[in-house]
């Protein structure tokens, strides 16, 4: 007896259109024309006997029937993808694993741990690329991405890696004219250097330190931690940086941290992969390895920096 199941192509078009709210964006993702995606959705609606989408201005939104159907079929599509990828890998812990991470975190916190992974899983080769923010896992062929946030990404399997403590740093020369030991309130006398990925970093740190009367919103902005670090070394002002990014520079005396103790961020770094691929052997091996590392456990709890 044949199964009463729509075509996989139609279901893929439906899922991607629901994801983007756009048939044209779904077409780009699936390497189809917009008209082809629209025909697949129309055929699926005719087959099911109900409307799956309603047009709202320039966006397609799911109808109640469409939302219910999507929630029902998505786990099945995820399972189908996972089974296919596992079969293609031969079911073994081998192959190439592509990991994306923010550059400073990757170089300071994750890459130094990789020799241990290589010793335990010599048949898995790691490609390590720099990426800030949410990647397109499919288009960029990324297996695991390190993301910073609250860990509440509904479509991702997220493993906590590392907390973040922020501390103000500057060059020793910047504070020589004070003629005394710098105090947190002295920050009002210096330019505050900002990081694009932490727009509320200074405001939150100052509020936690009881210094909310200091303007924490304005000042020069830099895209990466390393840029803000070099600006601070050059004497352009005081940068607010995570402790893991400054250990070497503090040890050599290129920078100092005279304005107060580090303050913990409410956010963390997470190793993430699409839930549909979490059971792929090479990804499962890497995630299990991270979960078992005592160093990672301590960093996740904020015990070490």
Using the CA coordinates, give the radius of gyration. Answer: 24 Å
Poorly predicted residue ranges: none
What composes the largest sheet? 5 strands, mixed
Class from helix and strand fractions: alpha/beta
The global form is elongated
Q: Topology as H/E string?
A: HHHEEHEHHEHEEEEHEHEHEEHH
Number of strands: 12
Helix percent reads: 40-55%
Mean pLDDT: 88
* Spatial order of the strands forming the largest sheet: 4-3-5-12-6
Note the beta-strand portion.
15-25%
Short description, anyone?
The chain is α/β, with parallel strands linked by helices and 305 residues long. It is built from twelve helices and twelve strands.
Structure commentary:
The chain is built from 12 helices and 12 strands. A 5-stranded mixed β-sheet has the order 4-3-5-12-6. A 5-stranded mixed β-sheet has the order 9-8-10-7-11, sandwiched between helices. By secondary structure, the protein is α/β, with parallel strands linked by helices. The longest helix has 25 residues, at 64-88.
């Amino acid at each position: 007896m044949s199964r009463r199941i729509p075509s996989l192509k139609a279901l893929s078009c439906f899922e991607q259109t629901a994801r983007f709210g756009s048939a044209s964006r779904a077409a780009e993702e699936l390497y189809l024309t917009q008209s082809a995606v629209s025909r697949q959705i129309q055929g699926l609606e005719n087959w099911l006997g109900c409307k799956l989408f309603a047009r709202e201005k320039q966006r397609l939104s799911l109808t109640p029937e469409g939302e219910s159907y999507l929630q029902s079929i998505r786990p099945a599509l995820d399972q189908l993808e996972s089974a296919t990828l596992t079969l293609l890998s031969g079911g073994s812990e081998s192959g190439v694993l592509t990991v994306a991470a923010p550059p400073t975190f990757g170089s300071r916190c994750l890459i130094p741990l990789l020799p241990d992974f290589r010793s335990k899983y010599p048949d898995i080769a790691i490609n390590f690329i720099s990426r800030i923010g949410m990647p397109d896992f499919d288009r960029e062929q990324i297996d695991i991405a390190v993301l910073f946030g609250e860990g509440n990404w509904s479509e991702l399997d997220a493993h906590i890696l590392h907390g973040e403590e922020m501390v103000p740093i500057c060059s020793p020369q910047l504070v020589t004219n004070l003629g005394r030991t710098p105090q947190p309130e002295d920050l009002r006398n210096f330019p505050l250097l900002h990081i694009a990925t932490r727009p509320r970093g200074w405001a939150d740190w100052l509020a936690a330190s009881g210094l909310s009367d200091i303007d924490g919103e304005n000042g020069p902005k830099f895209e990466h931690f390393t840029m803000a670090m070099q600006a601070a070394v050059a004497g352009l002002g005081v940068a607010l940086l995570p402790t893991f990014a400054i250990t070497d520079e503090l040890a050599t005396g290129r920078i100092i941290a005279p304005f107060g103790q580090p303050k913990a961020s409410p956010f963390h770094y997470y190793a993430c992969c699409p839930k549909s691929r979490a059971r792929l052997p090479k990804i499962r091996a890497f995630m299990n390895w991270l979960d078992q590392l005592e160093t990672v456990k301590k960093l996740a709890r904020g015990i070490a920096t």
